[in-house]
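Page 47, continued from p. 46.
Same chain as before, 345 aa.
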Amino acid sequence: MAEVHVLDNYYLAITLLITIGYQLFFFSIAFSLKFDKLTDFAGGTNFVVLAIITLAFSGHHNARQIVVALFIMLWGARLSGFLLFRIIKTGKDDRFDDKRDKFFPFLGFWVFQMIWVWTCSLPVTVLNSPNVTQYPQHKFGTGRDIVGIILFTIGFVMESVCDIQKYLFKSKQTDKGAICDVGFFYWSRHPNYFGEILIQFSIFMIAVSPAADGYVMGQAYKALYATILGAFFLTILLMFVSGLPLQERPGAKKRYENGNHWEEYAKYLHQTSILIPFPPQAYAPLPTIIKRTIFLEFPMYVFDPAKHADQDKVHEREAEEGRNSEAQINGSRDDGPEIGQHTPE
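Result:
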């Protein structure tokens, strides 16, 4: 099958245009109907669409191209399927409560999703492009390929199992503030993020093999290495933008101010690694400098009640709890006969 040349020889422009069109189509439905159920589905399935199209355009279907395309399709399909199932169960997405009726803020989320999809698809896109496939490809199965497969398997299993574990934990709990410390969450506070990062770097590791092993030269060599941008982009996104920063300190602050299992949660924070899975018994006694560096628990994630809590809210809650406790005590006294009185017959 002859390869297809479209706009540029790295398929960057055509995949960007497809992504923009795909996301705007679903955005128009979501905004017009105030419908949350398609948002994450549109993101995950977009990866599948780009992988299929670039693989079909390439005209060359060696094992490495097929494996990388299948990996990103498997990841995208599972992610979109799970998130669609979850949103159907919950009914709406709280992330959009302040954006759903506002055109530009809501569109802003979809534009960011376009960038996420296009950037993280780069290893597959460039590997399938004419500028790379023009070079002879070596057989699949090098040490780098095998390591990539192992890392993808670990990351995929971890992310998939984590999503199920957390969903089942929340669905079975009557106490909505209960701390999920089961399964992988016993070893890491965000094992699903760790799994997703492994997936992205494993796909890059396999895709870059033709350049790393000396089979691809020139600008194509540089282009393949440049696709690590996708894995870095996702890592930065999870660690510094929309993942850990929105969950760690804000989550701890909310629990502390509301008195929601704070003592238990503080213990969980102290003994559980933020990202990299590690035995709690070994993590808890580690020096702070080790946690802040090797285990990536940067100061920006750490909650200090004295610095970050709204003390007025805490005092209001404590006063309210005191009034409720006093009312319960008085109520129990009023329910029974006083000492020295006879109960009427």
